[in-house]
Amino acid sequence: MSLLQFGNSWATRASEAGPPLSVRARALSPSGNTEVLVQEGKARGFRESGPASTAPRSPVASDYKGPHAVQSLSLHPVLVPRTLLPALCPGLAMAPTLPLLLALVTVVIPGPGGAQVSINPIEVFLPRGASLQVNCSSSCSENLNLGLETQWPKREVESELRWKLFELSDIEEDSKPLCFETCGTIQSSASATIILYSVPKHVELDPLPTWQQVGKNLTLRCLVDGGTPRSQLSVMLLRGEEVLYRQPVDVDRKNPKEITTTVLVSRDDHEANFSCRTELDLRPLGLALFTNVSMTRQLWTFDLPLTIPKLDTPDLLEVGTKQKVLCSLEDLFPASEAQISLELGGHTLISKSRNHGDLVLATALVEVTAELEGTQQLRCVLELANQTLIAERTLNIYSFSAPALTLSQPNVSEGNQVTVSCEASGGALVVNLTGAPLGTPSPKVEFPSPKVEFPLTARAKDDKEQLSCSATLKVAGQVLFKTRTLELQVLYGPYLDDSDCRGNWTWEEGSQQTLKCEARGNPPPHTLNCNRKGDGAPLPIGVVKSVSRAMNGTYVCYAESSRGNVTRDVFLRVVYYDPTLIIILVVMLVTVVLISTAVIYFYNRQRKIRIYKLQRAQEEAMKLKAQAPPH
């Protein structure tokens, strides 16, 4: 007998034993696209599911109206897509006879005397861990033993002669509870299908690296624990709200499920939020779309150039000086997160750092002390993310003082001799000594030398002359120079030479003049005055606003200092003129000019008259010649 004939036979027997049952089955088409028609029982203890967003309600005892309610039992078809059957009913094989087998599951098995057992609900969707009330009823009229077989905890809620109401609790898996009966000596049973759904109980995105380098691949790994049915479950990896990767979770029931993808990191990903989201889409089953999101994880990215930081400072540093040290690096990201420090001789320098765009810069002011003398390492350490870039530079720290330039006497009198000495220290050598004319040393000195001495005979003109001594020091292959100068103090004077005070002056009466007379000497003369011989009349030194003829005469100028005194004769001649003579000369000059003008005028007038008369005579002669008859 074929399965189809077997099903029809059972349907016929059921209709004979009790209320009519509607049993329909549709075989799958060869293409596999035909939907399967599954029978669903409807009684007082079970209600059809409502809208897509409402889950089926479990039957309760108040819905049950006794064993006679089974008389109203009828089977109603529920269309289930073929693609959902493996997940919804894993125990059912997707074979051409599957629709028929599903129909047979729901058929009430008849007992003796027309008895039959039924289960309500026949098929139900529940969240994992939920409870369900199941009604087992029978039409058996004698020696009935009715029960429910299930793997879940159960308790009998209510019962009467031909039915029992059980409550199943803590349902954790898809299952098929079985109502069984013993009617006399005949046993029969009916089963229902419980299909569970659950959102993943744990969705976690693996911790991201503390820092991720730009241009490198980042692996995003999402761990999904739980979630059924798997065929309706998918996982998405997100950057913000952007979907980077989407993958359906296959029917593999391995838990937890790991989903991975790789992302090429860019600077735009800095401080971006990544997360993992699951979607359990039960809308095809008349339920809702359930989502679950992992904790958001923030990514920090960095980018470093191929170069090391740049150190900007001289290679040679002198003890006792202050030197600015600079370290910089461009093309790094994010520059604001970079830590940069400077070290000299193993000691961290106090530095100031700043950043602008993709540039970071650190500066420090180094006070070079004697403890640092020698070769020292200058280090610039830049730290960004988990990377460290180090730049090093060797500095030579030296001590080089200017040579000591001294005189055997701080002040030397004119004509006396003094010794000029120049001495270098710390390995330096004196290479030059210049200034006032120096004598020949004994013994003879050759340059360069650590110390040189020269004799000097002081002259008045050498006073305030600059003596100069130069020394050199070779450090790390470089030759350094330093010079010391000293002003020579020669005691002389006082002097009143012609260059200091001219001996002859000629001034015009009434004019303003300046008498320049200045005595020289070291120390400078404290007294200088000029008085006329005879009457002792003073001559002002400096500006004379109005010269008078009374100032005419010979003066004696006197200068005095702590070294002595000196005098000089000065002759002053005042030029003046008589006003009457000037008037006479002016009148005579005017008279001469007038007479000369008159003579020139009359001379020119007579010349013009003569020329005119000559021209008239020539014209008359020409007329007479023209009137004479020809011969």
From TrEMBL:
Which Gene Ontology terms cover its molecular function? integrin binding
Q: Which GO terms describe its cellular component?
A: plasma membrane
Record's bilayer topology term: Single-pass type I membrane protein
Q: Where are the transmembrane segments?
A: 581-603
Pfam families in the record: ICAM1_3_5_D2, ICAM_N
Question: Per the record, which residues fall in region Disordered?
Answer: 41-63
Location comes to: Membrane
What SMART domains does the entry give? IG
- Ig-like domain location is 494-567
Q: Give the GO biological process terms.
A: cell-cell adhesion; cellular response to oxygen-containing compound; immune response
* Keyword line: Cell adhesion, Disulfide bond, Glycoprotein, Immunoglobulin domain, Membrane, Repeat, Signal, Transmembrane, Transmembrane helix, Ubl conjugation
Q: What PANTHER family has UniProt attached to this entry?
A: INTERCELLULAR ADHESION MOLECULE, INTERCELLULAR ADHESION MOLECULE 1
The function of this protein is: ICAM proteins are ligands for the leukocyte adhesion protein LFA-1 (integrin alpha-L/beta-2). During leukocyte trans-endothelial migration, ICAM1 engagement promotes the assembly of endothelial apical cups through ARHGEF26/SGEF and RHOG activation.
Subunit structure, briefly?
Answer: Homodimer. Interacts with MUC1 and promotes cell aggregation in epithelial cells. Interacts with ARHGEF26/SGEF. Interacts (on T cell side) with CD81, CD247 and CD9 at immunological synapses between antigen-presenting cells and T cells.
The entry assigns this protein to a family as follows: Belongs to the immunoglobulin superfamily. ICAM family.
- Report what the protein is called: Intercellular adhesion molecule 1
Q: Which species does this protein come from?
A: Myodes glareolus
